[in-house]
Structure formats: C-alpha cells, structure tokens
C-alpha cells in the first residue's frame, strides 16, 4: 500500500516556521550597532537649567535716584544706657532671694523649690478640688445608674405576677369543675370493651385530662392566693 501523507502537512510546516526564532539555529539577528562616538559622557544625565534670556535694550529700568513718597528715613537717637540702667535699678522691685538647700559639709547646694522639700502644690488655690471632667463624669455615671435602675424596675413590673381575686378564683374553679363533669360524662359513655387501638388511645387521653383537671382543682381549693404570670 502507498505511504500515508497527511493533508495538513504544509499547514504544520508553515506554523512551525512562523513560531521559530531566527537566532536559534543561525545565531543572533543582525541589528544596528551603536556608534563609538555616542559614548556616555560625564554629567550628561544631570538636569540642565534653561539658558538665561538676555535683556533687550531699552527695556531695562534704571534705578531711581529720588526716594519714593513712602520712604521714611531712620532717625537714630543716642541713648545713655548707663543712666537708663541706673534708673531701672532704682525704680524697679528688688529681686526676691532664692531658697537653697545645703546637704554636704563642703557647701554643695541646690534649689529648694524643684527638690520636692518645698510645699509648692499644697499652697495652690485649687489644691484638693475635683477637676471639672471628674465631676461631669460622676454626674453622667449617676444618671446612667438611675436610668438603669428605672429600666430594671419597669421590667420587673412587667414581669410581676398578678394575684387572682376571690371572684376570679371562684369562676376559674367553677369552669374547671364544669369541664371535669363534661369529660367525666364522655369517659362514662365509653364502651366496656376496648378492642381497637383508637378506643384505647381515646380512653387514655380522657384519663389524662381528668387527672390534670383533678390536680388543678385540688391546687386551687388548697391555696387561697393564686398568682399568675402576665
């Protein structure tokens, strides 16, 4: 038989030639080589300022020789500093002596005021007075505590149990006894033979209801005060 030749042979060859790099088999591609004259010079990459423009003739203003109207000449007055200092010493208040503390035999001394031995802070006008922010914070805490206590009391009042009056207690007791009589009548009317599952379940349900009603009636008759939750 003849050898099999694919129909896509030329397409595969074209795709392979298209994706093939030129320098893989024949070396690097030939590109333009930079000229040796274009070498990197010193300080060539530093930013350069634009050249100054030369002043055109006739546009340069000459300085005026006459002072303007807003000019005020500085008048220098001679002062006699010796007499000024002497007058300041005579009329000024004398300096208060500074308090020192000597703690060694050689006479080493230091200032008494910043040492902590001088009663500086207790002589202040606002010594021992609560700051304003502390008073404000205490008032806010007290107000929040009162609001919390009021909310707790309101919640307790909502959750408080209600006491049944004697009339309501009598009505509830009569209703329970009436309900017991109706269920007991239904229970007495059951057939003697309970041969089916439905009859057994119905009988057990009536017995449970009767037992629960008897328990409630006995509890209400035993206790004079009955509390119910809202």
Automatic annotation (TrEMBL):
Instruction: Tell me which UniProt keywords the record has, alphabetically.
Output: Cell projection, Cytoplasm, Cytoskeleton
A Pfam cross-reference name: Enkurin
**Per UniProt, what is one GO molecular function of this protein?**
calmodulin binding
Kindly state one GO CC term assigned in the UniProt record.
acrosomal vesicle
Q: What is this protein called?
A: ENKUR protein
Superkingdom in the source lineage: Eukaryota
- Its source organism is Setophaga kirtlandii (Kirtland's warbler)
Localization per record: Cell projection, Cilium; Cytoplasm, Cytoskeleton
Asked if the keyword Cytoplasm belongs to this entry, the reply reads yes
Enumerate the residue ranges of region (Disordered). 18-63
Where does the protein principally reside? Answer: other
Q: Where is the composition biased (Basic and acidic residues)?
A: 40-60
Domain Enkurin as annotated: residue spans:
136-228
């Amino acid at each position: 038989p003849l050898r099999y030749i694919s129909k896509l042979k030329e397409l595969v060859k074209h795709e392979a030639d298209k994706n093939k790099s030129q320098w893989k088999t024949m070396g690097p591609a030939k590109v333009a080589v930079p000229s040796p004259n274009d070498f990197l010079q010193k300080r060539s990459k530093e930013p350069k300022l634009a050249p100054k423009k030369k002043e055109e003739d006739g546009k340069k203003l000459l300085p005026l020789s006459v002072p303007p109207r807003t000019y005020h000449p500085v008048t220098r007055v001679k002062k006699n500093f010796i007499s000024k200092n002497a007058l300041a010493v005579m009329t000024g208040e004398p300096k208060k002596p500074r308090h020192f503390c000597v703690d060694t035999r050689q006479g080493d001394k230091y200032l008494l005021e910043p040492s902590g031995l001088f009663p500086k802070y207790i002589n202040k006008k606002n010594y021992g007075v609560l700051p304003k922010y502390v008073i404000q914070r205490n008032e806010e805490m007290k107000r929040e505590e009162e609001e919390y206590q009021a909310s707790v009391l309101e919640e307790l009042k909502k959750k408080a149990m209600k006491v049944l009056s004697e009339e309501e207690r009598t009505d509830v007791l009569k209703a329970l006894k009436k309900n017991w009589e109706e269920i007991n009548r239904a229970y007495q009317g059951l057939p003697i033979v309970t041969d089916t599952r439905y009859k057994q379940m119905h009988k057990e349900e009536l017995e449970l209801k009767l037992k629960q009603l008897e328990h409630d009636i006995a509890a209400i008759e035993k206790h004079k005060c009955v509390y119910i939750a809202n």
